[in-house]
């Protein structure tokens, strides 16, 4: 069995117009929500993967800290930034099979689209810092098609 938790980055800061999109960091609410959601989350990951955007990396680091996950082993994947559903699926299907529980931090609208595609039952678009947990009845990431939505949580729920 494989478990994938798709996590949309927490709320980002739009105050500094000089920053490029990839450089935007979390705002105060984003830090607070990421901390609260990660403390509520009880599943220990085998692997954390994130987009290279600062807001996604920051969200992943907060989860890593609160889940006692070694932040030095977080994988940063360019394919998760400004990309397509197929790019995300490529990252997911190429996860080493030794990892069973994976947290993947990325961006809307693609992360919501991927969650909908993989579950066929996502109830809504993923708000910031939302978590969609999906379980696949397989032992190989390459063979995932549709899984069961086992968690859909977000800060305002």
How does the SSE layout of this entry go?
Elements: E1 2-8, H1 28-40, E2 47-50, H2 54-66, E3 75-76, H3 85-93, E4 101-106, H4 110-119, E5 131-136, E6 148-153
Helix pairs in contact: 1-2
Taking the sheet with the most strands, its summary is:
6 strands, mixed
Low-confidence runs: none
Strand content: 15-25%
**Helices and strands: which structural class?**
alpha/beta
Order of strands, main sheet, comes to 3-2-4-1-5-6
> What distance separates the N and C termini?
28 Å
**What is the number of helical segments per DSSP (H or I, 4+ residues)?**
4
Total number of strands: 6
Radius of gyration: 14 Å
Query: Which term fits the overall shape?
Result: globular
Mean pLDDT: 96
List SSEs in N-to-C order.
Answer: EHEHEHEHEE
Helix content: 25-40%
Quick tags:
six-stranded mixed beta sheet, 4 helices, 157 residues, alpha/beta
Protein model, in words:
With 157 residues, the chain is an alpha/beta fold. 29% of the residues lie in helices and 20% in strands. The protein has helices spanning 28-40, 54-66, 85-93, 110-119; strands at residues 2-8, 47-50, 75-76, 101-106, 131-136, 148-153. The protein has a six-stranded mixed sheet, with helices on both faces. The model has no long low-confidence stretch (mean pLDDT 96).
Summarize the structure.
The chain has 157 residues and is of the alpha/beta class. Helix content is 29%, strand content 20%. The two termini are 28 Å apart.
